[in-house]
Design brief:
The chain has 283 residues and is α+β, with helices and mostly antiparallel strands. It contains four helices and twelve strands. Strands 1-8-11-10-9-12 form a six-stranded antiparallel β-barrel. Strands 5-4-2-7 form a four-stranded antiparallel β-sheet, with no helix packed on it.
Length: 283
């Protein structure tokens, strides 16, 4: 009998403890929403809009570059030759225009006195206008060659790390052929997904915590920057306790002041506190 009573007491305590634990766990789960996603880092393929031979590429894969850093250069000699040719053509037309202006001025003086015919005067006007148009065309052609010469060099559009060195000096590239792939330092965001029942709990600007799988690593702060208006099926790469066929909405959680630790594709855990009532997006 004593053993039975002791067993009932222990069993009652176990039931009470379980109930308390489940109640606290339920309270805790209602205070935050946990999502799983992957880090997204914007990448840029750097290339030329011209066809020529690559002359210089000073950086290797893994090198860090700052915005405005010189990245690569094409062989400039053919483009320098075209600039000089265009400059010579412009100068020749400018000389012809100056001569046409002198002739037109003389014709204006003589036509009033009857020294030249009206036809000669009209021809002088026409010739002057033709040379003016030719000069404008020559200056435009010179501008094109100067733009091409400027485009023989590539500079980093933003701070980042060289992800891929695609070409080598001596290679002949076509327009839009990439020579580097640059992984930008900023912006950095997390691509996560939320189910339809949870969608109403999330709003733009909602604060977030971003946790990595590395023990003792920094916890990053962030905010919800984008909520997709279109539902989609859960991607296979996303770990979820729900069925793969569930409809979800894609989120973009922007990391505030990230460092270089967050890498492309890194799995992370996003915690969204639900007790915040301020629904104003950050300005």
């Amino acid at each position: 009998m004593r053993r039975l009573i002791l067993f009932l007491i222990l069993f009652s305590l176990l039931l009470a403890g379980t109930a308390i634990y489940l109640r606290e766990e339920r309270k805790s789960s209602t205070k935050q929403l946990t999502l799983y996603g992957n880090v997204d880092v914007r990448q840029v393929d750097l290339g030329f809009r011209l066809s020529a031979r690559v002359d210089e590429m000073p950086f290797q894969e893994g090198d860090y570059v700052q915005k405005g850093t010189f990245m690569a250069r094409l062989d400039q000699q053919p483009f320098l030759d075209r600039v000089r040719e265009a400059q010579a053509s412009r100068d020749a037309v400018a000389t012809s225009l100056a001569n046409a202006e002198k002739i037109l001025k003389r014709r204006e003086e003589l036509v009033a006195k009857g020294g030249v015919s009206k036809e000669d005067y009209d021809n002088a006007i026409s010739s002057h206008r033709v040379y003016q148009a030719n000069l404008a065309q020559a200056e435009a052609a010179l501008g094109v060659t100067l733009t091409d010469l400027k485009d023989t060099e590539i500079f980093a559009p933003n701070d980042g790390t060289i992800l891929t060195r695609i070409r080598e000096p001596g290679a002949v590239v076509k327009p839009a052929d990439a020579v580097y792939t640059l992984s930008l330092i900023s912006p950095v965001w997390v691509r996560a997904f939320v189910s339809e029942p949870q969608l109403g709990l999330i709003y733009p600007g909602m604060p977030a915590e971003i946790h990595t799988d590395t023990p003792g690593s920094k916890v990053y702060t962030g905010h919800v920057g984008f909520i997709s208006p279109v539902a989609e099926f859960t991607p296979k790469s996303v770990e979820t306790t729900q069925l793969r066929t569930d409809l979800v909405y894609r989120l973009r959680i922007i990391a505030d002041n990230p460092d270089q630790f967050l890498k492309q594709g890194m799995p992370v855990t996003v915690v969204l506190p639900l007790h915040h009532q301020d629904r104003e997006a950050p300005r």
